[in-house]
Structure formats: C-alpha cells, structure tokens
Amino acid sequence: MSTAYPEGLPAPFVHPSPPQRPELPDGVEPTSIAPDWRVWMGFSALLVGFVAAAVGAVILTLIGGAFDGSVVASGKLANPSPAVNILATVVQDLCLIGAAVIFARIAGRPRPWDFGLRATRFWPAVGWGLVTWAAFLAVTLAWVNLVGAENTSEKLPTELGADKSRLALVCVGILVCVLAPLAEEFFFRGFFFTALRSWKGIWPAAVTTGLIFGAIHAGSSNIAFLVPLAFFGFALCLLYAKTGSIYPCIAIHAANNSIAFCSSQGWGWQMVPVLIGTLAIVALICWLVRLAAGPAPASALS
C-alpha cells in the first residue's frame, strides 16, 4: 500500500529518534557510575582489614607452634616458621580485599569495574605507566643518594623464609610478585583512593593514600625506601585517575616487585622470565575476574 498523502495535506508528526550515546574511544570499556563510597568507609576498611590480618597471624602462629612444639619460647610466641609467615601474608592480602568489598557493599552491591577493574586504551596506559615507573625510580635514586643508604635491597623475601627451600622461594615469589600487587592495588587504588577522592578530590586523596601506602610497608621494606614507596603509592593514584583503570597500576606494581624480588636473590638474566611470567599470571587473573563478572553496563564513564 502506498504511504503517499494527498497533495496539500501535511504529513503526520513523527517523533524524532533519541540521540545516540557518544562513541567511546577504542579500547575503553563502558562502566557504571562512580560508586558512592564515603571517606569513613575507606579508613574503616583499612582498620578492619589490618586488625583481621593481625588476628589471623596470631592464630596461624599458634597453630604452627602447636605442630612443632614451640608455641611459647621464653614467655613469648616463638618466631613463626616460613610457612606460617607466608600464610599470614596471604591472609593479610585477602583481609584487605575482603574489607574493601564488605564496606563497599554499604553503598550498594559493588561490581569489579567499581574498583577500577575495567579496560582502558592500551598504548596510552603503557605510556603513562612507564612515566609513573620512571618517576618512582628517579625519586628512589635521588632519595637513596640524599640519605646515604647503603643497603636498599628488599628484605621481605628473606623475612618470609624464601632462603629456606625452593618451595618457599617459589611461594614467596608468587606472593610478592603476583598476590601483593593485586591485593594492594584493589584496596588502595580501587577502593581507598576512590573513597577519599569523593571527599576532597584527586590530589588530597592521592597524597593521603600514598602516605598510608608507604607507612604500611614499614615492617617489610628497608627504612630508606618508605619515602619513595609513599611517592609510588601517590603516583599510582594519579595513574589510575589518568587511565580510569587499575590494570596499569597492577602491571607496574607487579613489574616493580618482580625486579625487586630478583634483586633480593642476586639474580641477573632470571629477571626476564620472572617479569614475563608475573605479568602473564596477573593478566590471566584479571581476565578471569572480568569473565566471571560479565560485561560492564553501557553507561557513562565514571
């Protein structure tokens, strides 16, 4: 049937089509609206996470001591075995992740992209990531020369018992190079920085997060490294703000830890396979998390 209308009669009114959502840049994944996380949630999660980790460490120490008969030595808890140290550090990382998720749920059901687990443009992320890493290395070199530190090697692997056996070495390597970057970036950049950012903006939130990030490493890193580590935490916040994703933060953090771990063992060429393997494992874990969560909603970028 013809849709033509008699000459002289106006065509019926047709509602215009709704405007199309602007196209996103290539490689950028659409995300949900920024979560409504409050500053008190960030500090509360930090406190609860470390208290839970401390309780877990004591329990693991008691259990480990019960098996080797050294629960108490000279009226004090005996030094825990490498296995207990490793497990306690794993528990600490899991407690940070759990605390972030629990307090994030106060504002509604969180999804992975709320914590920055979302895609971004690859080459800009690589570029800004390398700039962040280079700035950290430059600050570290300047600071070490300023304070005249003689030994700046990573002491955490030795404290965890990496020198006790090959199995312990592998476990500590996975913990330091893979689990720690994932957990710390998820908590400090994905949750804590985001909560503080909603309060005072990017720069105060980045400075505060960096200072706390440096402070929590006081027991596991050489004292000369605390200021550079605080700067590293600050710079990673800016990297997250610039790219909109914590994937670049995780990658730089994992790469830095891998090199530091290899240096602590006096390795040379072994750094290359360790670095490649670390980044591959981290990428696989992030991909599995995205796969399990499903596609992000097609809404405006946060």
Question: How would you characterize the overall build of this protein?
Answer:
GO terms for molecular function: endopeptidase activity. Residues 169-258 form the CAAX prenyl protease 2/Lysostaphin resistance protein A-like domain. Residues 1-28 are annotated as: Disordered. The chain crosses the membrane at residues 39-63, 83-104, 125-147, 167-187, 199-217, 223-241, 274-293. Residues 13-22 have a biased composition (Pro residues). The structure is a single chain. By secondary structure, this protein is an all-alpha fold. Helices cover 63% and strands 1% of the residues. The radius of gyration is 24 Å and the shape is globular. The chain has one domain. The protein has nine helices and two strands; from the N terminus they run H-E-E-H-H-H-H-H-H-H-H. The model is unreliable at 13-32 (pLDDT under 50). Strand 1 and strand 2 form a beta hairpin.
Overall pLDDT score: 85
User: Uncertain spans, ≥5 residues at pLDDT below 50?
Assistant: 13-32
Specify Rg, calculated over alpha carbons.
Answer: 24 Å
Count of helical regions = 9
Reported for the largest beta sheet, the result is: 2 strands, antiparallel
Portion of residues in beta strands equals under 5%
Q: Indicate the percent of residues in helices.
A: 55-70%
Q: Give the structural class.
A: mainly alpha
Order of helices and strands: HEEHHHHHHHH
Strand order of the largest sheet: 1-2
* Gap from first CA to last CA: 49 Å
Q: What characteristic shape results from the CA principal axes?
A: globular
Number of strands: 2
Number of domains: 1
